[in-house]
Amino acid sequence: MSTEKRYISKYFPINKLNKKVKTNKPKLKNEIIQLPVNQMVRSRLIDSNFWKQSTIDLAKALLGKYLCRSVNGTILKAIIVETEAYLGAEDHASYSFGGRRTEANEPMYLPAGTCFTRMTYGVYYCFNISSNDEGGAVLLRAAEPIEGLEKMSQLRRLHPKAPRKDKFEEKPYQLANGPSKLCIAFDIDSKLNKASLLVDPNIWIEDSNILHKNNEMISRTRVGISASNLWSDKLLRFYLNNYQSVSKK
């Protein structure tokens, strides 16, 4: 069995996709009517009330959920395994520190569940999600792929900064084990800025049956924050310790 099939079967059994639904349309004997792709894959979309929580709570609650993306008809899916919380005006490491509000960070002030894609170093993107706090957002740092691995590998290899050699087939956890890698693997860039995860047909979050014990969720300091920053020692990075895709343990 291929790596991709093994991952899909383990976390999201294929037979769940072939769901029969009632229809008034006349059908031939033995004909199976299937859900349209958009309706089928979004059937596990999390409730809108999920987003009505603080930045820290949202960062923790997103762990174990599925990040889903539709790219030219191909569904990409991964388990969110690492996040960082940026609390807004009080947070010295946040783009919205001091209540700063500009065109660039406007998505941080939009309704909870809004995508905030920000370019770094002129070639990479980071993917954030606005929270219920004013100016608060959660950075998705890493995710463990379970569906669409072939497409993710293709996207990683097409990027201008693609690794000269990779082992994505042998080590699929390396596809999205960092914030920029995640964006490349999921084709996330400026075109998704300000998109709503509640209604956008191309990107969404699905619930899962993945449960984790308290001791499996680890809190650490955020990555890339200067030691001179007053909030550099805050434990606002959260990850699930039992996944290989975590960027830093």
TrEMBL record:
<comment type="similarity">
    <text>Belongs to the DNA glycosylase MPG family.</text>
</comment>
<dbReference type="InterPro" id="IPR036995">
    <property type="entry name" value="MPG_sf"/>
</dbReference>
<dbReference type="GO" id="GO:0006284">
    <property type="term" value="P:base-excision repair"/>
</dbReference>
<keyword id="KW-0227">DNA damage</keyword>
<dbReference type="GO" id="GO:0003905">
    <property type="term" value="F:alkylbase DNA N-glycosylase activity"/>
</dbReference>
<keyword id="KW-0234">DNA repair</keyword>
<dbReference type="InterPro" id="IPR011034">
    <property type="entry name" value="Formyl_transferase-like_C_sf"/>
</dbReference>
<comment type="function">
    <text>Hydrolysis of the deoxyribose N-glycosidic bond to excise 3-methyladenine, and 7-methylguanine from the damaged DNA polymer formed by alkylation lesions.</text>
</comment>
<dbReference type="Pfam" id="PF02245">
    <property type="entry name" value="Pur_DNA_glyco"/>
</dbReference>
<dbReference type="GO" id="GO:0003677">
    <property type="term" value="F:DNA binding"/>
</dbReference>
<keyword id="KW-0378">Hydrolase</keyword>
<dbReference type="InterPro" id="IPR003180">
    <property type="entry name" value="MPG"/>
</dbReference>
<comment type="subunit">
    <text>Binds MBD1. Binds SSBP1.</text>
</comment>
<protein>
    <recommendedName>
        <fullName>DNA-3-methyladenine glycosylase</fullName>
        <ecNumber>3.2.2.21</ecNumber>
    </recommendedName>
</protein>
